[in-house]
Amino acid sequence: MKKVFSALAMAISLGLGAQAWAQTEKPTVVLVHGAFADASSWNGVVKILEKDGYPVVAAANPLRGVKSDGAAISALLTSIHTPVVLVGHSYGGNVITDAANDHSNVKALVYVSAFAPESGETVAELAGKFPGSTLGPTLAAPVPLAEGGKDLYIQQDKFHDQFAADVPAADAALMAATQRPVTEAALNEPSGSPAWKHIPSWYIYGDKDKNIPPQAMAFMAKRAASKAVEVVKGASHVVMVSHPGAVAHLIEQAAVVK
């Protein structure tokens, strides 16, 4: 009889332990990079989040089109069976706005120097809604694609000043050489139904961003009724590279809100 009670006590203990783990388990953070970047742009943020116990996936954004990119990230979300904090940088904000729909495990959206479009809006339209973007003149000659359309890059000698002015020159040069192109069509493709209308959002950006005018990001953050908006003084478009601590802190804020 003593063995029976011992076994029962152990089972209860294990059950309570599993229940406690389920209650305290941290959400998975899915990071989606934007145009002219790749998943390594999140490296500083990933180190902090993982140190703090968060599972992290830095996704490879195809940068081919809003709908198809959203479908790629949506497929990734389907494979994750925990709550998710979905984070997007720049054009990646457009992608997460689409991808989060129909995923009940996505509990929060975090926009990092990002687009948070309304239905039917395009990246190009939002970038030009307010004055301040100087991206256009820094783009290299479009690269024709075999299947039609064009790829866009930032000229390497203009990359540092335009995209990452507050990043050390050597690091910015490496980013320029490894940048991934976005299609011209993706920047002009209308967005679908915005997930920020039913999923709470957070927003962070730099006040020296030259790709997306800070005024445009303030407008989008307010429209999305973001729970917190942080403006990092002196930060460029790649605030997650130059200020990974601030970005990770905001993500962790979003992660703990029920």
Characterise this structure:
The chain is α/β, with parallel strands linked by helices. It has a single domain (about 25-255), classed as Alpha/Beta hydrolase fold, catalytic domain (Rossmann fold), CATH 3.40.50. It contains eleven helices and nine strands. It has helices spanning about 1-25, 45-50, 65-80, 90-100, 125, 155-165, 170-180, 185, 215-225, 240, 245-255, and strands at about 30, 55-60, 85-90, 105-110, 145, 150, 180-185, 200-205, 230. The strands form two sheets. It has a six-stranded parallel sheet with strand order 2-1-3-4-8-9, sandwiched between helices. It has a three-stranded antiparallel sheet with strand order 5-6-7. α3 (about 65-80) crosses α4 and α6 (about 155-165) crosses α7. It is globular and about 45 Å long.
The CATH architecture would be: 3-Layer(aba) Sandwich
Note poorly predicted spans: 1-23
Radius of gyration: 20 Å
Spell out the CATH superfamily: Alpha/Beta hydrolase fold, catalytic domain
Helix-strand string: HEHEHEHEHEEHHEHEHEHH
How are the SSEs placed, and which strands pair?
Elements: H1 2-24, E1 28-32, H2 43-51, E2 56-59, H3 66-78, E3 84-89, H4 91-99, E4 106-112, H5 123-127, E5 143-144, E6 150-152, H6 156-163, H7 169-178, E7 182-183, H8 184-187, E8 201-206, H9 214-223, E9 229-232, H10 239-242, H11 244-256
Parallel strand pairs: 1-2, 1-3, 3-4, 4-8, 8-9
Antiparallel strand pairs: 5-6, 6-7
Helix pairs in contact: 2-11, 3-4, 6-7
